[in-house]
């Protein structure tokens, strides 16, 4: 092996090989259907040897930095050395890659050859699989040899286009040539061509290699590796199903249009293309483009949805105007499940809100929601799902799941069983799955991959991938909830870790020239106890002219995370750190999160500083932005900072003086904000006290909010607003901002009516009036009612969103909750990607670094903001699900508990089961209380129900304080839920 | 599970160090130089770089069309740039006063002015007409190479043969980008006098990430120019030898003196 030619940049410039082919293809244009003739050129090489593999070129022996470079296998002995001895060489075709990835990843197939043709076809069909294949090719594994074969450029395997051969046939022929090439080059080794295409197998039968289907090959493998249950991994295609579904069964869905018909329809403007997003199994949205604007189209019902699952790229046809629905129609009519959950903080954002698109169109009759139906699927988003198998129980089926299970479960003649798998993710329908190990899988959380969804099947088909662990186990359930919310939780890949600075990286003024040295300033940080990722620090000095100099110093993450690097892309994808009860999933590798970026005390750190000169009465005189190097003198907890604020003046104590001065200024800023109409909202959140070893919850505490918390918050808000104004001045259309839309009146109506029933009034004309009316809404006997109202009004508002300033009019940039015309996130770059972008924008606008190219593309920023909104929401939901999980563990450990609760909502609809919703402030739990009576008297105006209980007649009205019992109820298959019962 | 908008498009390079057309990073496309393809003019050249084909013709030195254009001490060099309607996949008429073409004409003119001894032809006019016949990236470079070749074929006195080549991308630095690569890479065109090592033109419209990247890209482009020179020089010598032999064979060809350095 020649070690010299590792770097191609040092090679001499020379002419391309003399052999080349030109291929011509005709493609219709998108707009007018004009036919274009396109000619491309391809060079054929004879220096490609036997394909490429990844060679480990890492210089140091650290395992986490293994990364390689592609190497050409130049000679036959080299190839023989690489291949695992006495094992067949397996050449795969496109469909095997697309559908049988789990077999390739998990089965003991040591020598895999992936032809470029197959990989490129894969790329056109399913990006997820393409990524997995590339990962497979790039991983360096001691027991596996994966070879990439660039067949279009290899003189031995290049196939000329021939008349009468379809592109698919041509690609199959190319892949067979690769198999033949290996068959002829390696006489003593058996070469297996893996394909599920019968025609391709027949054409291959007479050649120097063996063609096999995946199922056949897996059966061969199972003989040598019994007990691996490999056949469960083989994907279920349509043909496999017919063993138990009668072929002549009537289709349950409309057939999808063919790919060519789809692209023709999309080009001619009859069909629209978009990604289907759903929040549950009933309604879905597809965002389409009409001209320059994006509109979300509502898809209602199973028939219109036509087998599309969340994330599919679909083609839709719009319904005529008569079938459009009015904008006021409530889309999700699903009632809360009876089980209790963690109280939510804000209103559920609609899907259109998540991606910053409108979902109504103004027509003559007013605003209408366009509706449509799915006519075809451009690209499937069949990702792996975690969940569990339900089986028909011996008795009568009570739950929805058991009914479906009883209906669909079959025993197959070949000894396997078809069972029904229910994903935890509610967006995905149940999956039918064929397995040899059903009894072993019951009561386990498993991962299942979706394969296909024929029109004759009510549910999609899938295959088993792996077992996570027993249902109910804390770690298993944590992994399940991460998968459910699609939160990236794999360890950082080697390419990302390779972007890290060395561990002994020295932070000094010399290592990053051009920084202002602020190490002489008494900077300190205030955070919750035990905080590892400190991203902000403050200082406050008295200037000679009597004014204050206040500085907010934010960790300079962009110094380490360079734009466009693997680490940057990974962070952009993760977008946020996720905080669970028992662990933290970082956006950036731990070295940055907890060490180099974290503004710990008594060490030098790089920072991005905002420095203000503030007059003693709280007016800002000037502001300055600087990349700096700081030296924090103290990392205070909120408690410590609070004690500084409370203790008497002591001019000798620098820390105490600074905190006191900051507190005085913060009070002034806060008053000014409240005068402008900023809202003070409340959250029902609680935190768990965990056992230090088992990490099981032992107690629940409410968050203590001290003045010190408000102090830090005030300066962070100030920094964010200041930075937002600055970047907006330089980049009026490219700034990443955060907006909070004004709430919709209809969302507030129920709350206003409830408040009226206890004699309080809420005015929502603008944020100032809302803030004032919330302040006035006090019940003397119970101060908690006021907090409850604040919690409930938060839920009537949409959550804040990230957006790119060029997308919306300036009037829509407004942040309602903070009453700020512009707002952004600047202060937590360690845990939020939006802040990283804002850091780059700010650095560019003060001319310390150029603006990265991709940040000047509006469409990139749109996608980025949509991703950040989705991830942010997912992180919140996962955090809440984690709290819920720990609540269950807490209650199942200690048995039932009795607690005080407040009634949030009384169900006064006639005909429904008598029930009401309560919140338990002690645990931050919210849930529906079902009454064990058949009849109840309802008073909708008063929000009250009355019924005759076992011992006495009872009456419950909204905002009443009631006594409830909290307990854990067992469901089938070790699943549990929290139940709340009323105590009379 | 990364998002589609985050994916690196240069997948093939990462897997086998090949570009989408099968070249390595440091390989320039196949090149062909034909001279004397148009008999009507003093000098002509048809240059192909991969699928890009450019025809350049030189007329002159002639009298200026208008007296007012004349310069007392040197010749006036005029460059006209046009594209055939069939040069891209999308067939459409391209007006000659297109701003991009006017700019390209100006760039070619500047590059050649650095090489032609214009003061030897005072009060005269030299016209270069450039037509893009087929376009697949590297239009400006092919135009400069063709014009330079045609000038030599016309027998004008030159300091050196101007050669042009583009380089782009940063990691890795690619040379002689085709149309597909031009779309999502930085692209820097560079023209130089290869035997003197003087850069006469370099143009880049993209934002380079660092000064160090500029050095690398420019260095690669200059190496590319030298490689183009090797091919071009051989073609010119061959053409000269051909003309010389046909002259001795009493062929009826209107010959012009070649001026090969």
TrEMBL record, chain A:
Main location: nucleus
Keywords: Exonuclease, Exosome, Hydrolase, Nuclease, Nucleus, RNA-binding, rRNA processing
Entry GO MF terms: 3'-5'-RNA exonuclease activity; endonuclease activity; RNA binding
Gene Ontology BP, a term: rRNA catabolic process
GO CC terms in record: cytoplasmic exosome (RNase complex); nuclear exosome (RNase complex)
CDD domains given in the database record: PIN_Rrp44-like (cd09862)
PROSITE patterns, per database record: RIBONUCLEASE_II
Pfam families: OB_Dis3, PIN_4, RNB, Rrp44_S1
Residue ranges constituting the PIN domain according to the UniProt record: 88-202
TM annotation in the entry: none
InterPro entries for this protein: Dis3_CSD2, NA-bd_OB-fold, PIN-like_dom_sf, PIN_dom, RNase_II/R, RNase_II/R_CS, RNR_Ribonuclease, RRP44_S1
Subcellular location: Nucleus
Segments forming domain RNB: 515-848
Superkingdom assignment: Eukaryota
UniProt record similarity statement: Belongs to the RNR ribonuclease family.
Protein name: Ribosomal RNA-processing protein 44
Origin species: Fistulifera solaris
Taxonomic placement: Eukaryota, Sar, Stramenopiles, Ochrophyta, Bacillariophyta
Automatic annotation (TrEMBL), chain B:
Lipid biosynthesis listed as a keyword: no
InterPro entries found in the cross-reference section: ExoRNase_PH_dom1, ExoRNase_PH_dom2_sf, PNPase/RNase_PH_dom_sf, Ribosomal_Su5_D2-typ_SF, RNase_PH
One MF term in the entry's GO annotations: RNA binding
Keywords carried by this UniProt record: Cytoplasm, Exosome
GO terms under cellular component: cytoplasmic exosome (RNase complex); nuclear exosome (RNase complex); nucleolus
Broad class of where this protein is predominantly found: cytoplasm
Localisation: Cytoplasm; Nucleus, Nucleolus
Name assigned to this protein: Exosome complex component RRP41
Organism: Fistulifera solaris
């Amino acid at each position: 092996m020649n070690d010299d030619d590792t770097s191609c940049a040092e090679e001499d410039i020379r002419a391309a090989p003399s052999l080349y082919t030109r291929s011509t293809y005709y493609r219709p244009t998108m707009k007018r259907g004009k036919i274009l003739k396109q000619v491309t050129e391809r060079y054929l090489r004879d220096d490609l040897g036997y394909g490429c593999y990844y060679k480990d070129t890492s210089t140091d022996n650290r395992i986490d930095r293994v990364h390689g470079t592609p190497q050409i296998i130049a000679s036959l002995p080299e190839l023989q050395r690489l291949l695992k001895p006495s094992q067949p060489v397996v050449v795969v075709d496109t469909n095997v890659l697309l559908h049988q990835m789990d077999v390739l990843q998990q089965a003991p197939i040591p020598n895999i050859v992936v032809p470029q043709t197959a990989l490129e076809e894969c790329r056109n069909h399913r990006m997820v699989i393409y990524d997995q294949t590339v990962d497979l090719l790039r991983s360096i594994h001691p027991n596996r040899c994966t070879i990439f074969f660039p067949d279009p450029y290899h003189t031995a395997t290049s196939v000329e286009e021939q008349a009468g051969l379809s592109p698919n046939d041509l690609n199959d022929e190319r892949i067979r040539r690769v198999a033949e090439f290996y068959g002829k080059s390696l006489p003593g080794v058996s070469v297996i061509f893996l394909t599920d295409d019968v025609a391709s197998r027949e054409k291959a039968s007479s050649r120097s290699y063996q063609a096999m289907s995946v199922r056949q090959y897996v059966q061969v493998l199972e003989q040598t590796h019994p007990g691996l249950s490999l056949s469960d991994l083989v994907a279920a295609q349509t043909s496999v199903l017919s063993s138990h579904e009668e072929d002549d069964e009537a289709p349950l869905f409309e057939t999808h249009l063919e790919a060519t018909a789809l692209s023709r329809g999309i080009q001619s403007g009859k069909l629209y293309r978009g990604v289907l997003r759903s929040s549950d199994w009933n309604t879905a949205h597809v965002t389409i483009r009409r001209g320059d604007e994006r509109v979300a189209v509502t898809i209602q019902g199973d028939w219109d949805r036509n087998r599309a699952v969340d994330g599919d790229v679909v083609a839709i046809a719009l319904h005529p105007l008569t079938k459009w629905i009015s904008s006021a129609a409530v889309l999700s009519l699903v009632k809360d499940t009876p089980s209790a959950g963690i109280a939510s903080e804000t209103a559920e954002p609609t899907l259109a809100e998540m991606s910053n698109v409108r979902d109504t169109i103004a027509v003559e009759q007013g605003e209408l929601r366009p509706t449509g139906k799915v006519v075809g699927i451009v690209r499937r988003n069949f990702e792996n799902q975690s969940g569990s198998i339900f089986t028909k129980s011996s008795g009568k089926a009570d739950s929805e799941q058991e009914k479906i299970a009883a209906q669909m479960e079959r025993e197959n003649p070949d000894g396997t069983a078809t069972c029904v798998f229910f994903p935890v993710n509610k967006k995905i329908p149940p999956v039918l799955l064929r397995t040899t190990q059903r009894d072993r899988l019951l009561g386990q959380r498993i991962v299942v991959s979706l394969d296909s969804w024929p029109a004759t099947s009510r549910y999609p088909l899938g295959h088993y991938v792996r077992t996570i662990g027993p249902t109910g186990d804390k770690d298993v359930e944590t992994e399940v909830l991460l998968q459910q919310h699609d939160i990236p939780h794999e360890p950082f890949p080697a390419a990302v870790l390779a972007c890290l600075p060395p561990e002994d990286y020295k932070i000094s003024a010399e290592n990053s020239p051009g920084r202002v040295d602020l190490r002489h300033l008494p900077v300190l940080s205030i955070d919750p106890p035990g905080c590892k990722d400190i991203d902000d620090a403050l200082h406050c000095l008295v200037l000679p002219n009597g004014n204050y100099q206040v500085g907010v110093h934010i960790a300079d993450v962009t110094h380490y995370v360079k734009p466009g690097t693997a680490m940057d892309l990974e962070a952009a994808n993760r977008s946020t750190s996720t905080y669970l009860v028992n662990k933290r999933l970082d956006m950036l590798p731990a070295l940055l999160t907890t060490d180099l970026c974290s503004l710990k005390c008594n060490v030098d750190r790089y920072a991005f500083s905002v420095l203000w000169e503030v007059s003693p009465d709280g007016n800002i005189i000037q502001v300055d932005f600087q990349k700096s190097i700081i030296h924090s003198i103290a990392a205070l907890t909120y408690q410590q900072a609070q004690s500084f604020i409370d203790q008497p003046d002591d001019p000798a104590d620098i820390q105490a003086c600074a905190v006191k001065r900051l507190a005085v200024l913060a009070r002034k800023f806060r008053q000014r904000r409240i005068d402008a109409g900023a809202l003070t909202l409340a959250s029902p959140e609680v935190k768990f006290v965990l056992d230090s070893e088992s990490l099981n919850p032992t107690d629940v505490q409410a968050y203590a909010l001290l003045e010190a918390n408000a102090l830090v918050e005030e300066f962070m808000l100030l920094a964010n607003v200041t930075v937002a104004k600055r970047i907006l001045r330089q980049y009026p259309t490219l700034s990443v901002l955060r907006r909070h839309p004004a709430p919709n009146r209809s969302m507030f109506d129920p709350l206003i009516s409830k408040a009226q029933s206890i004699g309080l009034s809420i005015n929502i004309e603008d944020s100032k009036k809302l803030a004032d009316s919330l302040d006035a809404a006090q019940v003397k006997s119970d101060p908690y009612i006021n907090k409850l109202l604040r919690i409930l009004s938060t839920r009537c508002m949409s959550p804040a969103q990230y957006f790119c300033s060029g997308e919306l009019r300036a009037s829509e940039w407004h942040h309602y909750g903070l009453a700020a015309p512009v707002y952004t996130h600047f202060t937590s770059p360690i845990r939020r990607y939006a802040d990283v972008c804002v850091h780059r924008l700010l650095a560019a606008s003060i001319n310390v670094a150029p603006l990265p190219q991709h940040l000047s593309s509006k469409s990139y920023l749109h996608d980025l903001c949509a991703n950040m909104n989705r991830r942010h929401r997912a992180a919140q939901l996962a955090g809440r699900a984690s709290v819920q999980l720990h609540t269950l563990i807490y209650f199942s450990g200690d048995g039932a508990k009795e607690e005080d609760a407040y009634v949030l909502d009384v169900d006064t609809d006639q005909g429904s089961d008598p029930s009401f919703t309560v919140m338990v402030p002690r645990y931050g739990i919210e849930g529906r209380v079902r009454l064990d009576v058949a009849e109840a008297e309802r008073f909708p105006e008063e929000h009250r129900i009355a019924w005759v209980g076992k011992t006495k007649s009872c009456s419950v009205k909204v905002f009443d304080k009631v006594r409830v019992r909290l307990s854990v109820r067992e469901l089938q298959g070790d699943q549990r839920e929290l139940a709340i019962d009323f105590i009379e | 599970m990364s998002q589609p908008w985050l994916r690196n498009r240069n997948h093939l390079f990462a897997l086998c160090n090949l570009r989408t057309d099968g070249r390595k990073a440091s390989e320039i496309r196949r090149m062909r130089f034909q001279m004397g393809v148009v008999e009507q003019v003093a000098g002509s050249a048809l240059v192909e770089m991969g699928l890009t084909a450019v025809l350049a013709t030189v007329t002159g030195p002639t009298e200026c069309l208008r007296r007012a254009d004349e310069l007392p001490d040197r010749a006036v060099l005029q460059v006209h740039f046009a594209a055939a309607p069939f040069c891209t996949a999308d067939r459409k008429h391209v007006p000659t006063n297109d701003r991009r073409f006017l700019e390209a004409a100006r760039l070619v003119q500047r590059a050649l002015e650095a090489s032609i001894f214009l003061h030897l032809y005072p009060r005269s006019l030299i016209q270069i007409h450039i037509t893009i016949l087929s376009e697949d990236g590297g239009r400006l470079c092919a135009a400069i190479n063709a014009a330079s070749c045609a000038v030599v074929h016309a027998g004008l006195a030159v300091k050196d043969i101007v050669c042009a080549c583009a380089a782009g991308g940063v990691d890795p630095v690619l040379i002689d980008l085709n149309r597909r690569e031009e779309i999502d890479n930085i692209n820097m065109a560079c023209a130089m006098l290869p035997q003197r090592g003087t850069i006469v033109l370099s143009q880049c419209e993209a934002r380079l990430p660092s000064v160090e990247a500029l050095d690398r890209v420019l260095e690669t482009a200059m190496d590319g120019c030298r490689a183009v020179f090797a091919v071009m020089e051989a073609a010119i010598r061959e053409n000269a030898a051909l003309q010389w032999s046909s002259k001795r064979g009493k062929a009826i060809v209107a010959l012009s003196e070649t001026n090969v350095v």
